[in-house]
Amino acid sequence: MSALRRGKYPQVEPGAISLMHRAVAMCPSGLTVREALALVRRRHVRLLAVRDRGMFGLILPRDLIRAQALGLETRRAGDVAWRGIPAVTPGATEVTVRRHLLEGARAVLVREGRKLAGAIEPSAAALSRPALSLLPRLERQLPREMLGLLHQIGLAAESVGVRAYAVGGFVRDFLLGREAAELDIAVEGDGLALARRLASELGSRLVVHATFQTASLEGGGPVRIDVATAREERYREPGALPEVRPASLSQDLLRRDFSINAMALVLSPAGFGDLLDPLRGSADLARRRIRILHQLSFVEDPTRIFRAVRYQTRLGLTLDHNTRRALRLAADIGDYPALSGQRLTAELELVLTESAATQALLSLGRLGAFRILDQSYRFSPSAAKRVGDLGSLLRWLREHSIPLDVLALSLLALLAHLSREVAERCLKRLALAGEPLSRLTAALREAAVLARKLATQPQAPPSSRASLLRAHSLETLGGAWLAGAGRARREIEWFLAEGRATRPLLGGDDLLALGVAPGPRIGQLLDRLRDRRLDGVTATRDQELTLVRKWLLRAQASPAQPMGKASEGAWAAPSDNRPTALPAQRLGGGVGRGAKPPSEK
Ligand code: CTP
Fold first, then answer.
1. What is the pLDDT of residue 414?
2. How is 254-269 classified by DSSP, letter by letter?
3. CATH number assigned to the domain comprising residue 49
4. Which of 230, 235, 288, 368 could crosslink 300 through cysteines, CB 3.0-4.6 Å?
5. What is the span of the domain harbouring residue 414?
């Protein structure tokens, strides 16, 4: 029998108590960031713990320092706490502690009864797990051209003396079995040297952004390639563009938005295909969750709020608890003078390119994200209803090939319920100006009124219904569709699909040939012909020719009348067969759905 089995040597099972340090203190609730930092310095602690509904939260001094640098020293320290921190008893086994750390806990707290006894933090070495080779999967999953490109980038990197990694969306999408639209390369060393080398090898067009040490390559390969020198970032103000400086790949991964975007694939020949995943992005992908890497991520870069929701809807992921809290904190801070309206608008436009765009807008609304536009913004049930309906409107407009400004219509859905002042402040915050701003402002003012009018107007011939709607921009019509229901919506749909596009069959040249003098009269006559066609009075060229001749004769018969109000009467005499009631019915439907009496609809 061996010594071990005879129990000769004691089994070493140190347990939590022997793994913990005591440099942790409870942070009284209500302490500000500044006060919490003072506590950290006074007590020489590495961590502060907070209580959170029977659970523990953890405040990291580095998050407090970051918060202070961003001007948030008067906010509650608890706002930057990580929640849901596991706590164990002093006798808990090392295996239990390790399991918590491997699952991504920032630390494990040790408590004796209700008292905090200490904390166990993961060492950097414990977290750097061996890299997993994705090579077999790369060979199976990637098109040959793409795989060849990755090898070529690795070799080119080696020849200029740097190390290259595929990072970000490319790795994320590869692991999800999705095709990536572009390839992001991070370079340890001179990224621009690699970009130049690649551009000349591939024959791509190269655009260099020296300030950010990045370059884009287009053409010459299966996808667009963005090359960046691995870097760390420092944000001087919430929402400002970061200052960057070259750094290692691990630091580069750490500065990113979410764990799922913070993985790297080795491209250099030694280790080609190894997945570097120090922040456990692949585990988060498997659990279908989006996790930020530090609590002030959204405050530093509020555009990440839009990014989070894009990934959520596109990839079917959910925001984890801490990420949601961090997002609310950023929305709550609200005002980001250093974040330009153009960047905000660009992010919103990116959201709108997603196939589930309205779903994403709903999520943004419910998360309070639009408070970034204005602190008084509230996402009400009526806004949610409009955003919900927006999808059908956009689909309908696309099906009918009607030019649509998705951003304008989305803004109408998002802002119509607000007071005029708040809505206009939001539009200005998005840096809208000039014509687009005035069209949207008018639409916000007029849409609901128009919707009400359409819902209640007495039955009228198509020409007069069309003339009411023709006076409004597409934005106002879209806004009225969103504000209205049943009859108002059908009127707008009829106008957009048919009424608006109806033209007379004769053209200006035909009228000139009939003897009408050049000038504004041509346009007036064409408008009148269009109205007769809308009303179903005419349906052929011959009928229009006959009608114009009749009008000309009548005008000759009363030559003394100038072309103004009086002659208008002559041009539009009832004897030109102008209908008194819905004429489309007489012509078997004429201009279609809209020509039916509204009561039939
Ligand atoms: N990134 C970031 N914070 C931002 C923007 C980008 O951390 N505000 C990082 C992320 O790691 C991201 C990478 O830069 O993966 C590349 O950004 P981008 O090309 O915008 O996103 P992709 O990851 O390629 O995702 P997609 O284009 O599919 O949205």
1. 98
2. HTSSBGGG--EEE-SS
3. 3.10.580.10
4. 235
5. 333-499
